């Protein structure tokens, strides 16, 4: 009877082992499926990484072309303004920081010091704005020169007299001592 019992115990053990092996097989199949999904996800990630790298290259190239175009334009603006400014030079700079924030700086450099546009005095803004109107190719340039002292008024008139534009200069100052170029007509009110 012990042989029969031993055989029964062995058969029960084999059935349990078979059950355990089937459970292990199911787990193995799940893990195998997960591994395939992980591999597929890794490949998709690699593809997305490549697309991201390419998109960043395209973006950086576009930023570089934009910066070059803006730099060339601002250089031309400053160069043209400098032809009319009685002293100093117009300053335009364009940058972009790491966060993509655009930084446009406009100012006037004189005596080695650059003053931002918002820091210019009223008289300086009048002169600067007049030069900017020239760059923008205005047909009629109106200069509100009430804040210009006689020296700056004269220098501005001299620079503006060389333009092939209609120029109107308004001031309440006396023109005594100011050399008005002959192509200007002085009208007193």
Q: Could you explain the architecture of this structure?
A:
This protein is α+β, with helices and mostly antiparallel strands. The chain has a domain at 1-75. Helices cover 57% and strands 16% of the residues. The protein is built from three helices and five strands, in the order αβββαβαβ. The strands form two sheets. It has a three-stranded antiparallel sheet with strand order 1-2-3. Helix 1 packs across helix 2 (122-135). The chain is rod-shaped, with a radius of gyration of 40 Å.
Topology:
Elements: H1 2-82, E1 89-96, E2 102-110, E3 113-116, H2 122-135, E4 140-144, H3 150-161, E5 166-170
Parallel strand pairs: 4-5
Antiparallel strand pairs: 1-2, 2-3
Helix pairs in contact: 1-2
Radius of gyration: 40 Å
Helix amount, in percent?
55-70%
Main beta sheet strand tally, sense and closure:
3 strands, antiparallel
Number of helices: 3
Summing up helix and strand content along with how strands pair, one would put the structural category as: alpha+beta
Strand content: 15-25%
Number of DSSP E strands: 5
Terminal Cα separation, in Å?
138 Å
Mean pLDDT figure:
83
- Low-confidence spans: none
Give the overall form. rod-shaped
């Amino acid at each position: 009877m012990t042989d029969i019992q031993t055989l029964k115990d062995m058969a029960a053990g084999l059935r349990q082992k078979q059950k355990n092996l089937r459970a292990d097989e199911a787990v193995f199949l799940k893990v195998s499926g997960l591994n395939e999904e992980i591999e597929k996800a890794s490949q998709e990630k690699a593809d997305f990484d490549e697309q991201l790298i390419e998109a960043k290259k395209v973006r950086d190239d576009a930023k570089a072309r934009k910066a070059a175009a803006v730099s060339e334009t601002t250089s031309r603006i400053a160069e043209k303004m400098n032809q009319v400014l009685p002293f100093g030079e117009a300053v335009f700079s364009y940058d972009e920081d790491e966060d993509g924030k655009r930084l446009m700086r406009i100012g006037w450099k004189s005596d080695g010091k650059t003053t931002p546009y918002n820091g210019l005095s009223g008289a300086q803004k009048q002169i600067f704005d007049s030069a900017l109107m020239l760059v923008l190719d205005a047909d009629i340039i109106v200069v509100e020169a009430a804040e210009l002292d006689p020296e700056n008024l004269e220098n501005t008139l001299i620079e503006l007299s060389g333009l092939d534009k209609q120029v109107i200069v308004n001031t309440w100052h006396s023109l005594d001592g100011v050399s008005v170029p002959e192509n200007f007509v002085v009208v007193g009110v």
